[in-house]
Specification:
The protein has 110 residues and is mainly alpha-helical. It is elongated. The chain has one domain (4-61, 69-109). Helix content is 75%, strand content 0%.
Length: 110
């Protein structure tokens, strides 16, 4: 059950990584641009995977009370997916912002 949240998260992250790769396809004219894009996607995937596993270990499932088990056990799968998606999105946003910053600085010099 540890990797169920990654299965829930995986398809959406693959789609977002493909959108990032396709969006900057035209501006990837030199090999440093391609290497940068590959590194952003790899770091984002690694951050999502790592934080999802950490979140799985950190979520505490509530014990059964006098009225039975509460709805806390679903969060053992939901929170890792949310943490993983948040980590992926944060790395991608920083990667896109840095890409635009470097691109503008290069254009200003030319």
């Amino acid at each position: 059950m540890r990797y169920l949240s990654l299965l829930l998260l995986g398809p959406w992250i693959v789609v977002l990584a493909w959108i990032y790769w396709a969006a900057f396809k035209r501006s990837r004219v030199t090999w440093p641009h391609a290497v940068y894009d590959v590194m952003v996607v790899i770091v984002a995937l690694g951050a999502a995977y790592g934080l999802a596993l950490v979140a799985y270990d950190e979520v505490v499932v509530q014990n059964a009370g006098h009225l039975g088990r509460e709805s806390g056990s679903i969060w053992k799968q939901v929170m890792p997916a949310l943490y993983g998606y948040g980590a992926f999105a944060a790395v991608m946003v920083v990667g896109i912002a840095l890409r635009f910053a470097f691109w503008r600085r290069k254009r200003a010099r030319v």
